[in-house]
Each structure stands twice: as structure tokens, then as C-alpha cells.
Amino acid sequence: MSDSTRRAGDEMGKMGGKLDAIRDAAGGILGVFGGLAAAITAAGGAAIVSAAKYEQTEMAFTTLLGSGQKAQSFLKDLANFAANTPFDLTGLQSSSQQLLAFGFQAKDVIPIMTSVGDSISALGGGEEEISRVVAALGKGFCLV
């Protein structure tokens, strides 16, 4: 084999190695973009589910309070209340819905939830205990 043929073969081999490196780098970049696309899709799906749940919650409070404006105001107050407690907003919304359904006035719900939450926290309880106390309060309120 001639010297020039050997050098051409060596150059082709080097070029093949460089092409392999480019292919590997491109595959890594595509993998990152694929993962990013999957994360964005998952986040978008979660946002849609969250928005749908909020809409359902707002509709429920609109029914309980008689107007969308009252519901929005109440939910805003409840979110502010939740931000200052160890309890999550979803649990507080559920307990508040129960109290309203039992006939408690909207203006009394957050003060009641404050008392219940403080008592439950002092005893080391959580969302499940709050739900039980709210159910008991509702049953007692309905008997009066």
C-alpha cells in the first residue's frame, strides 16, 4: 500500500472518529431537549389539572355563598389564612365547604377554623383530625 493511500486511510479514520463525536454530542443534546420537553409537558398537565380543580372549588363556593364575587373573596381570604397555618389550602377548603354546607355563616368560618386549627395543632394533630372536628361541629350545629 502506498504512503499516500495509508495517509488518506488515516485521515478517513480520524474523520470517522470526529463524526462519531459529533453524533454522540448531538444525541446528548437531543436527550436533554427530550427531557426538557417531557418536563414542560408534565408541568403543563399539572397546571391544567390544578386550574380545573380550582375552578371546581370556586364553583362549589359560588353555590354555597350565592355569588361568584363572594366565593372569590372568601377563597382569597382562605388562601391568606392557609399561608399562616401549618395546614394546606386543599384541606382548609374542604373543611370550610363542610361548615358552610352545615349552615355556618361565611364570616364565622375562618374564626372557627382558627380555633379548631389551634386546638388540633396543640394536640399534635393534622388534617384528618380537623376534618373529624369539623364534622362533629356540623352535626352538633344541625341538631340545634
Report on this model:
With 144 residues, this protein is an all-alpha fold. The protein has one domain (3-143). It is 88% helix and 0% strand. The chain contains five helices and no strands. The chain has helices at residues 3-65, 68-83, 89-102, 106-122, 127-143. Helix 3 packs across helix 4 and helix 4 (106-122) packs across helix 5. The protein is elongated, with a radius of gyration of 30 Å. The protein starts with a helix and ends with a helix. The relative contact order is 0.07.
Shape: elongated
Low-pLDDT residue intervals, each spanning 5 or more residues: none
Topology, number of strands: 0
Structural class: mainly alpha
Number of helices: 5
Q: Secondary-structure element order, as H and E?
A: HHHHH
Q: How much helicity do the residues have?
A: over 70%
Strand count, sense and barrel status of the largest sheet are: none
Termini separation comes to 107 Å
Average residue-wise pLDDT: 79
Strand proportion, as a percent range, falls in under 5%
What count of structural domains? 1
